[in-house]
Amino acid sequence: MFMPKAMLSFAALLLVLSAAVVASAPIPISSVSVAPTNLATINCSTTDRYACDNATWVYCIDAQCDAPDPVTKVANCYCWTQVAGKSQGPPAQGGGAQCTIANTTGVTPAIVGGAVMCDSMRSGELWSTLGYLSVNTSFLSPFVANECPTFTPFTYCWGAKCRADPNPAHPNGTICECPWVTMPNPVNI
Hints:
The chain is α+β, with helices and mostly antiparallel strands. It contains three helices and ten strands. It has helices spanning 5-21, 97-105, 114-122, and strands at residues 37-38, 50-55, 58-65, 74-81, 85-89, 126-127, 130-131, 154-155, 161-164, 173-182. Strands 1, 3, 4, 6, 8, 9 and 10 form a seven-stranded mixed beta sheet that branches. Strands 2-5-7 form a three-stranded antiparallel beta sheet, covered by helices on one side. Strand 9 (161-164) and strand 10 form a beta hairpin. The termini are far apart. Residues 1-23 have low confidence and may be disordered.
């Protein structure tokens, strides 16, 4: 296939820029030696959602994550801050990343989900939630429409606390603290 020189240069630039956004190479699940937390055993497996309007939210569905910490079982995931709009966060109890962290580390977060999380998002705090665009799967990477089999380990970013990426090369970059978990049922979160 012939590609004009200018177009080839642009394609090469896009490749370099996209590679710069990611902190490191992907980590195969098989290389992670940390045992994931089963959400059902700590009562954090609900998928009930709390709707939040007019709040900045963070997109993490296809984020790349570091290996989880062997003690806390939490990984830093590299996500993207979205403009204020509609999203769905975890309920005030029984689901989401903060529920998991509270039940595995003994540290009770000030915010777990529900209206309190939504209000803090409206005040400028960064939280990973499920954006309403996710209802239309044409906006998402193809793999997110597939369910992972029961007990497949994954980083659980839904309801994770996030912070702006300090790297100026990542203007919308956000780093979220996501627990390493499994679910007792198939998931596509």
